[in-house]
Amino acid sequence: MRRHARPLGVLAAVAKGLFLLWAVPARSTQPPTLQQIHALVRHMAEDARELFLFYEQEQRLAFSRLCRTNASLEWLRGTVVTGTGGLRALHGAMARMDRALQGISQHQRDLNPPGAPILRRLDSTRLKVRGLLSNLEGVLHAHGIVPTVPTLPRLPAATRVFQQKVEGCRILWSYARFTEQLSAQLEERGLRARREERRQQRRGRRRGWRPAKS
């Protein structure tokens, strides 16, 4: 029996941390590829769902399903990652999500002691959002585009604790759905690209083949 065996949950967390370091290079001279961005988004979708489910249970909102509305937030709806325009739209959505997570975290700090699980999860999710922002900025800069985030009017703050909890929960629900749909979209694009690459390779092989002379 090994004396230094670690719980599976700790090993999974370490693996995710190492994966994030790979997916979000600190100071790379090369812009990230679409495959790298997709890998990060796929991980973010899993993380977003886990955060939403934890928040919903921890804030005791699961019984009423108040958070799971059919209407998504306007800025987390309908982003199609096609060309630089789509990447700029995604960058703008993630910049707003970064600020939304900051607001949710500030509210939760008023309700929880330092180091509470909900605070750690929110900070971890925000780190991933900022990682995607860094990746997107690398791609856009490679195309000569400097991404900007428009100044947005500040919404009136919720005055009741319960209302703030529900609003935060609905943001996390919209974010979880958004990242899930975005991951599926990027997966489909990747599959199409791989199919097209295989077709090009087959055509190249047929053009290079010549029948032997008898």
Description:
The chain is mainly α and 214 residues long. Helices cover 67% and strands 0% of the residues. The longest helix is centred in the last third of the chain and has 48 residues, at 161-208. The relative contact order is 0.16. The radius of gyration is 21 Å and the shape is elongated. It is built from five helices and no strands. Helix 2 runs antiparallel to helix 4 (117-142), helix 3 (83-111) runs antiparallel to helix 4 (117-142) and helix 3 (83-111) packs antiparallel against helix 5 (161-208).
Task: Give the tags.
mainly alpha, 5 helices, single chain, disordered N terminus, 214 residues
Question: How are the elements arranged and paired?
Answer:
Layout: H1 8-23, H2 34-58, H3 83-111, H4 117-142, H5 161-208
Quick structural gist:
The chain has 214 residues and is an all-alpha fold. It contains 5 helices and no strands.
Shape: elongated
Provide the helix percentage.
Answer: 55-70%
What sequence of helices (H) and strands (E) makes up the elements? HHHHH
- Sheet of most strands: none
Q: Which structural class do the helices and strands define?
A: mainly alpha
Report Rg: 21 Å
Got a strand count? 0
> Unreliable runs, pLDDT <50, ≥5 residues?
1-27
Kindly state the mean pLDDT as a whole number?
78
Alpha plus pi helix count: 5
Distance, first to last CA: 70 Å
Question: How much beta, percentage-wise?
Answer: under 5%
